[in-house]
Design brief:
Helices cover 39% and strands 20% of the residues. With 153 residues, it is α/β, with parallel strands linked by helices. It has a five-stranded parallel sheet. Helix 5 (116-129) links the parallel strand 4 and strand 5. Helix 2 packs across helix 3. It is globular and about 35 Å long.
Length: 153
C-alpha cells in the first residue's frame, strides 16, 4: 500500500468540492511564469489530483501531463481532462524526459513530502524534466500557517 492510497477514499469529494481553485490560480501561475510560459508549452501538473488544473491548462492551449500517486484521483483526472496524459507515480521517484517548459504543483500538494531529503528528490526530478530556462512553481503551507489559519477547515 502506498502513502497516497488514503486519497483514493475521498477522491470523489475532492473532485466535487474543490473545482474552482484551479480557475482562480491559473492567472497567478501565468503571471508568475511570465514569458517562460509560451503558447502551446508542455506543462507537468505534479500531484495533479483530480485534474482540475490540467483541464484549465488544456483549455488555454497547453499540452499537459499530470502525475499523482492516487489511482482514484487519476481516474477522475482522466474524466475531467481526457486530452491530458496522466501517470501514476510518486513525486519523489518519477522520471520523465526533459521536455517540459513548466512544472506546477498547486494546492499545497507538496506538503505530503515529509522530509527535506524527500523534497530534494522531488526538486531533482523536476529539474531533470524541465527544458533549459523552464520554471517550477509550487506552493506549500507552513506548520504555523496550518495551525493558526486552518483550524476548523
Amino acid at each position: 500500500m502506498n502513502r497516497y492510497s488514503d486519497y483514493d477514499a475521498f477522491a470523489w469529494f475532492y473532485n466535487r468540492e474543490w473545482t474552482t481553485f484551479s480557475r482562480r490560480i491559473f492567472p497567478v501561475l501565468k503571471q508568475m511564469a511570465g514569458e517562460k510560459l509560451l503558447d502551446k508549452a508542455k506543462i507537468l501538473d505534479l500531484c495533479c489530483g483530480t485534474g482540475q488544473l490540467a483541464k484549465v491548462l488544456l483549455e488555454k492551449g497547453y499540452s499537459v501531463t499530470g502525475i499523482d500517486g492516487s489511482k482514484e484521483m487519476l481516474r477522475y483526472a482522466k474524466e475531467n481532462a481526457p486530452e491530458a496524459e496522466f501517470i501514476l507515480r510518486d513525486a519523489r521517484t518519477f522520471r520523465l524526459p526533459c521536455v517540459y517548459h513548466a512544472v506546477f504543483s498547486t494546492f499545497d500538494a507538496l506538503n505530503h513530502i515529509m522530509t527535506i531529503e524527500e523534497l530534494e528528490k522531488v526538486f531533482k526530478n523536476v529539474n531533470k524534466c524541465l527544458v533549459k530556462g523552464g520554471i517550477f512553481i509550487f506552493d506549500m503551507t507552513t506548520k504555523n500557517h496550518f495551525e493558526t489559519k486552518q483550524k476548523g477547515f
